[in-house]
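Expect sequence, tokenised fold; for instance:
***
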Amino acid sequence: MTEATRREPGTPCWVSLMVRGLDAAEEFYGELFGWEFQPGPSQLGPYVRALLDGREVAGIGRLPADRDLPGAWTAYLASDDADGTAESVRCGGGTVAVGPLDSGDAGRLLICSDPAGAVFGVWQAAAFQGTAVAGAPGTPVWNELLTHECEPVVKFYRTVFGYEPDPLGPDDQDRVTLLAKGRPAASVRGVGADLPRDRGAHWTTWFEVADPDAAARRVEELGGKVLRAPRDGVEGRTATVADPEGAVFTIVRSSGR
């Protein structure tokens, strides 16, 4: 388990879930990952921070009652200048839906979407750096963008965050790793016609678990669904699951664990 410090621009630094039933979400994720919860910044409305061994790992907020939106995890990418990043997003063909706005003295944030419609957040840290631990079971360990085709959106993220793209996997796979200052930050996978019609392009968060098979069973016991059964791959053993409100995420036992 390692503690987080300042991230290079473009590095994932936080994940946040928006749901209708905040209490039910706390119960589900608390049982699944062993999280405890404390109130988050009041400026964000009904919102809690999830803790693992007393350190922040994720956020969960309540959707406004008048918004007909599905529950979903959002990955936040680090920025040294949220206002400048907002301008870059707009110039690159993306959309800024929320912000830039201050979250108390914690930092400054945006909610954006790329030209393909995938939603992501931007976080300019002040008092709050983001996810405080990584690598242990119950922590977010990777983020991947699923989209129709890699090249157009990789160009967008490269323009906004300065990533260097690194092709990943066999030549017949449309998959790219985004490097921030030479270090892997996230991946982009072009899935063509396999992109879910009901979701479109979207970011996915991967959470480390000790036993993906047992965790997948626990998801179902807690009222969620297993969308893709556990299987082995180059990243480790993974499964795609959804919580009781339908928010999709990946559980993984990373290679080497």
The longest strand covers residues 225-233. The longest helix spans residues 22-33.
